[in-house]
Amino acid sequence: MAASSITATIDQVFEADGDRVVYRAELKGCGNALPNPADFALTAKSGTPLNAHAEFFILEPQAKGANPVLSVKADGFTANFNLTYQDMSLDTMTGRRRERMRIRRDLDMVNPSIDGAYASYPKPQPLPEGSIPADFHPLVSIICPLYNTPLPYLRDMIDSVLAQTYTIWELVLVNASPDNEGMQEVLATYADPRIKTIDFPENLGIAGNTNIGIRAATGDYVAFADHDDTLSPYVLERYMAFAAEHPDADLFYCDEDNFEEDDAAGYAPRFKPDFNRDLLYSHNYMVHMLMVNRYILDRVELSPDEVSGAQDYDLSLKAVEHARCICHIPEVLYHWRVHAGSTNGGVMESKPYAVLAGATALENHFSRRGIETHVSETHNSCVYHVDYKKASRPPRVGLAILSNNTQDTTRLFKSVGNAHGISNTSIILNPASLRAATREALETLDTDLIAFATDMIELDDESCIATTAAYFCRAEVGIVSPKLFYPDGLIAQAGTVLLADGTPVAPNRNFTDNMGGGYNGLAEATCNFSAASPDLFMIRRSDLETIAGQLHEYGNLQTEVMELSFLLRQQDKLVLGTPHARATTHGSAYVAAANLNAIYGSATGLAELWRRFPAMRQDVLANPNVEYTSGYPRLDIKRDEDAQAKRIYTRGILSSIKHRILG
Question: pLDDT at position 652, please?
Fold first, then answer.
C-alpha cells in the first residue's frame, strides 16, 4: 500500500493499564486493504525511534463505509512524538495537545458521583397537594438500630424523621447501648409519642438488633434507616404516593448521596436504575432507603446472624422472591453519612464479615431458588461474582459464525480450538439478515444453546463460551453477551443502553478493565441491559425457535439484535451482559450512535423498530437524572463543553506559570 494514500489525525487519548495510554486515529485512504501495524512508528522530534515504548493495532471496519482505526498503546511519558507510516509523517503529538484531548475526554467521562455540578443540582421538592388521597393513611414503621451512636448523628437522624411531610409513621429505635448516658439524655429530649425506644441490654449485632425492631413494628410498611444517616423530608411522601396508586408495591428504594456534616451539602449521588435483577446479584445497588410492605414480612424469615452486616441485602433478595411490584423513586431522598467509623467511610477492609455476609446472603437466595452456585468476591469491594458452573450436565453450545468471507474466519476458528464448551460450529456466509442467519443456524446446529459471533471476534479467553452458557441454568435468562475488548485492552462492548431518542450506544467504551467498576458498578458487574451486544451473544435454541418467525430485516445487525432482544423481553426473559466471560473484537458491528444513520442509513429501520416496540423505548438502566449521549453516564444538565474545556486548560497553564515563578 502506498504510504502517500494514507492520512491520520490522532483525535482521542485514553488511559490504559499500568501507566500507559492509548491514542486513537481514524485511518483514511486505505482502500480495500488494511495497512500492516508493523509499518507504523513513533519517533521523537529528534528522529529517535520510540517503538520500544509503543504497540500498534488496527481496529477493522465492520460497517460499510467505515474507516479502520489505528490504536497506539504507548508509555504514559510518551507525549511528544511524530506518528509515521512507512517513514511518512502522519501526525505530530505534543504535550499541550494531549492535555487538551485529555480534558475533553474527562468531560465526556465525568460521572454523576464525581461531577461538581451536583452541588447546584435541583433538590427534591414537596409533591402537589392531593398527591396522596385523603383516605389513604397507612402507618410506616421506621426501624433504626442504635449502638453507641455519636450524639450529633443521633439528633440529625431523629430530626430528619420528625421533618417528614408524611406524618403517619412510628420510629422504632432499638438501643443496644442502654448504658450510654449521653444517648439516653438525647433520647429523653424527644417527647413525640411516635418515637418508640427499645432498650436492649445485649448487642445482638446489626441483624439481630434490626429483627428486634421488626418484631416491635406495627406499621403496614416497614422501612430501615441507619443511625448515622438522614432522610429527605419527602421520602415517605414519595413512597406513599406510589403505594396509593400501586397497592401491590412490596419493595421500595430511592436514590441517595453522601455527606459529611451537612446533608444539604451532599455529593457523590447514586442515581439508580429501576429493578435490575442481575445488577442486584452483583451488588446491593438498592441499599437505601429500603421499605417493604407487610405482605413481604409475612412471607419471609428474618435475617440470621450469618448475614449480619448485609441484612439489608438479605432482605432485598428475599423480597424480590415474593414482590408483586418493586418501586424505585429516582430522586435523592436518603443521605448517607461519610465518617471514619462507617462502611461509607472506606472501612470495609476492616469489616470483612460484611463482605462475607453479602456472599452468604446471595448463596442463600440461590439455594432457595434451587440453583447451585458459588459466590466469590471481586476486586471491587462488595461486588460479587456468581459462578453457576456446577450443573451436572453442561449445556451443548453451537457456534454460528456470521461472515462475508471464509478467509475472514481464520482468526476466530483458530481461537475456537482452544475454547471450552463448543460442541459444533457453523459458518453462515453473507447472511442477508439476522433472520436468515437464525434460520440457517437452526438447520445446521442441534445444540441446546446457540452463540452467534461475527468474524471480528477472537475467543482468546478459553472459558468465555462455557461461562456464558452457565447463566442459562436460570429459566428467566434469555440472551447473554460477554464483555468484549479491543486488542489494545480497552473495553469495546459491555452492554447496550438506549438514548432518549431510542438510539443504541455502548456504555463505558474505552474504559480499562478493572478500573473500579464505573458508575453504579456497570462497567464491571453482571447486569441486565436493553439489548444484547451484536458481535457475540448466546441464546437458547428453544427460545430462538419460538421467536425466529417474528424477526424482521432492518439492514443492519445492531438493529436486528435489538429486535431479537425485545422479543425475548416481551416473554419476560432477561438480556444479560457479564464481565466474567470475555473475548476480543478486532472490529465491531456496534457503530457509534452519531454515525449509525450515516453508515447504515438506518433511520428508517430504527423508526420501524420503535413503531413495533414502543414499550421498549425506555432503557432498562434509565434514570431521569442521567444521560448517555457521550457513551458514559452523566448528569442530565446542559453543558458548554468547549467553554468548559478552555477554562480548565487555561487554568492549568496559569497554574503552571505561577508554579514556575514562585517555585
Answer: 58
pLDDT tens, position by position, 609-637: 999 999 999 999 999 999 998 888 999 98
For helices 181-188 and 151-162, angle between their N-to-C axes, nearest 10 degrees: 20
Q: What is the pLDDT of residues 579-588, one digit of tens each?
A: 999 999 998 6
Collapse the DSSP code of 513 into the 3-class scheme (helix H, G, I; strand E, B; otherwise coil) and give the result: coil
Contact 61, 27 (CB under 8 A): no
What SS3 state is found at 544?
Answer: helix
Among candidates 96, 20, 131, which has minimal Cα distance to 645?
Answer: 96
Let me know how long the chain is.
663
Can you say how many angstroms the Cα of residue 339 is from the centroid of all Cα atoms in its chain? 26
Strand (E) or helix (H) holding 216: helix 205-216
Q: Which residue has the higher pLDDT, 605 or 548?
A: 548
Q: Which amino acid is at 382?
A: C
Kindly state the greatest CA–CA separation across the chain.
87
Identity at 523, one-letter amino acid code: A
Q: What per-residue confidence (pLDDT) applies to 46?
A: 84
The answer on pLDDT for 390 being more than 80 is: no
Sheet holding 69-75, edge to edge: 7-15, 20-28, 69-75, 54-59
- SS3 per-residue string spanning 346-363: CCHHHCHHHHHHHHHHHH
User: pTM (2 decimals)?
Assistant: 0.93
User: Angle at which helices 603-612 and 557-570 pack, to 10 degrees?
Assistant: 10
- Strands (E) across 378-509 are located at 384-387, 397-403, 422-429, 449-454, 457-458, 477-485, 491-493, 497-498, 504-505
Give the CA angle between residues 228, 229, 230 to the nearest 5°.
135
654 pLDDT higher than 60: no
Position 649 scores a pLDDT of: 53
What is the pLDDT at residue 63?
65
Bond preceding residue 289 cis, omega within 30 of 0: yes
Angle at CA of residue 136, ends 133 and 139, nearest 5°: 140
Q: What are phi and psi of 291, to 5 degrees?
A: -140, 140
In this structure, are strands 527-528 and 574-585 parallel, antiparallel, or unpaired? antiparallel
Tell me the average pLDDT across 513-532. 87
d(CA 382, CA 359): 9
SS3 labels along 287-311: CCCCEEEHHHHCCCCCCCHHHCCCH
For range 94-109, the mean pLDDT: 90
Q: How many angstroms separate the CA atoms of 529 and 276, rounded?
A: 9
Q: Do residues 253 and 211 make contact, with C-beta atoms less than 8 angstroms apart?
A: no
Indicate the DSSP class of residue 197. Answer: E
Q: pLDDT > 90: what percent of the chain? A: 68
228 in Cβ contact with 149 (< 8 Å): yes
pLDDT beyond 60 at 593 = no
| Cα gap 480→74, rounded to integer Å | 33
Residue type, position 597, single letter = N
